[in-house]
Design goal:
Layout (H helix, E strand, L loop, with lengths): L12 H13 L1 H12 L1 H28 L7 H9 L6 H14 L1 H17 L6 E3 L4 E3 H17 L3 H28 L20 H13 L1 H5 L14 H29 L2 H6 L4 H10 L4 H32 L17 H17 L3 H29 L14 H20 L9 H24 L2
Antiparallel strand pairs: 1-2
Helix pairs in contact: 1-8, 1-11, 1-14, 2-3, 3-11, 3-16, 4-5, 4-16, 5-14, 5-16, 5-18, 6-7, 6-14, 6-15, 6-16, 7-14, 7-15, 8-11, 8-14, 9-17, 13-14, 14-15, 16-17, 16-18
């Protein structure tokens, strides 16, 4: 009989909240793309609306995770348990899709961080490392180094990762606070910019709704990511800690997206954002504070992005570990290291992300490939919650929503399915995705089925 090693119950809600603050920091990784393509008002609407959806979903995921308080995996677990008696393959698809969405954060945020480092400290450098079949420029090289550093950090335990996130979270509050106050403290902030490149047809025509759906698909991880707090269910000290982390992180993310989005959009026009979606922050901070303080804001912004790498490793590794524990993927991923951390899962994520950095390079191109699996997992988790709500109707648990919430979960499921279909079919119209990214996403999902078949056939 194999001995099962349990994850340590040491996590407080403030620890999980600190890790989830990385989600709000994601606005600095890809808001520039939306601002450049959609214009200020529509970009802000997309980010805030998506964050509101994510905050509402957290209530469902909170209750569902409470049904299985000793199991790791978060929404991947919810999808697996909800669908296992109906469509068993939904479990590995949703779980691997979830893992893919969170693990890709490493490369998305890593490349964004590398771009900021280059713009701030090496603006004139054209250095590139030739690999024969492709060249790695400075942003990609820095991204790989950043990922390796946080791999070393996370293998030491969740407590250390959470403490580091708290420190970086303090620095995140510097650009968040300054940008939120920009309309009141900066003469360079202009309300007229919020109306630039505004297209009323985005909200009144079928073609406009299609554009909104494409971008709502693209920002899903950035807006929904606070659900990661459910992945740590077996590691919380109390159920109250889990509840506070999920609800507070969702609400905080909505506020950050709203006020920071308004701050950025009033300082930078859409054309500037479109020309340099990651690097424009450097000139923006110079404009706000002058040359003297700009490096401090760049460092603060980097810490905000580093939080994404830290959280992506922590959450993605537990999702893959939970899959292995449930028999959905290779048995080798169910092992913990001496610090009770699923390090093998972390190593796989690091390897995959290095490959994505080499072959995809652009943060939004990586996001297109990753979001396919992530949004699929959200759909299966929402519908899975509805099934579990009926199945566990008589279960005694600390968190139990009224049955009247089930129709709302189905409404969100339908909304998610629509966004998924439109986003996949018309991603190229966003200006950054292509069939290549979608094919990569599909191949990664198919890999999950191969691993599932191998586990069920040879690793019973």
């Amino acid at each position: 009989m194999e001995l099962v090693v349990l994850l340590d119950k040491t996590l407080k809600w403030t620890d999980a909240f600190a890790l989830s603050m990385s989600v709000s920091g994601a606005i600095f990784a890809s808001f520039g793309f939306a601002l450049g393509y959609l214009g200020a008002f529509t970009a802000i609407f997309v980010w805030v609306f998506a964050a509101l959806i994510g905050s509402l979903q957290n209530w469902f995921f909170l209750e569902a995770a409470n049904m299985f308080p000793d199991k790791s995996g978060g929404i991947a677990l919810i999808a697996t348990e909800g669908w296992k008696d109906k469509v068993p393959l939904a479990g590995p698809l949703a779980s691997f899709g979830y893992w893919m969405g969170w693990s890709a954060v490493l490369s998305i945020v890593g490349v964004s961080s590398g771009s900021i480092i280059k713009e701030q400290w090496f603006p004139k450098s054209n250095f590139a490392l030739s690999l024969g079949f492709t060249n790695l420029e400075l942003p990609q090289i820095f991204a790989i180094i950043i990922i390796i550093v946080f791999w070393i950090l996370n293998r030491r335990g969740i407590d250390l990762a959470a403490k580091v996130s708290k420190i970086m979270g303090f620095f995140l509050l510097i650009p968040v606070t300054v940008l939120a106050l920009a309309p009141f403290i900066s003469s360079d902030w202009h309300v007229e910019r919020l109306r630039e490149n505004f297209h009323i047809e985005h909200f009144t025509t079928l073609g406009g709704f299609k554009v909104l759906a494409i971008w709502l698909f693209l920002v899903c991880w950035s807006a929904y990511g606070t659900e990661m707090c459910a992945s740590f269910a077996p590691e919380y000290k109390t159920t109250r800690d889990m509840k506070l982390s999920l609800i507070s992180s969702g609400f905080y993310t909505v506020l950050v997206f709203l006020f920071v989005g308004i701050g950025i959009a009033g300082l930078v026009d859409a054309k500037t954002a479109l020309e340099n979606p990651n690097g424009f922050y450097i000139n923006m901070f110079v404009q706000l504070t002058g040359e003297r303080w700009a490096p401090l804001f760049s460092i603060s912004l980097l810490f905000a992005l580093f939080m994404g790498v830290n959280a992506g490793i922590a959450d993605g590794s537990r999702a893959l570990y939970g899959m292995a524990q449930e028999g959905l993927t290779l048995k080798q991923f169910s092992k913990l290291n001496k610090h009770n951390i699923p390090e093998r899962c972390i190593i796989v994520a690091v390897f995959i992300n290095v490959l994505m950095i080499i072959f995809l390079k652009s943060p939004l191109a990586i996001l297109v490939a990753a979001n396919l699996g992530y949004v699929i997992s959200i759909f299966f988790a929402l519908t899975g919650y509805c099934f579990l709500k009926t199945q566990y109707i008589n279960q005694n648990r600390e968190i139990k929503l009224s049955q009247k919430w089930i129709p709302w979960a189905y409404v969100l499921s339908i909304y998610t399915l629509i966004v998924l279909i439109v986003g996949v079919l018309f991603t190229e119209e966003a200006g950054y995705g292509s069939i290549k990214e979608l094919v990569i996403g599909i191949l990664i999902l198919l890999t999950s089925l191969i691993f599932y078949w191998f586990r069920k056939t040879f690793q019973k």
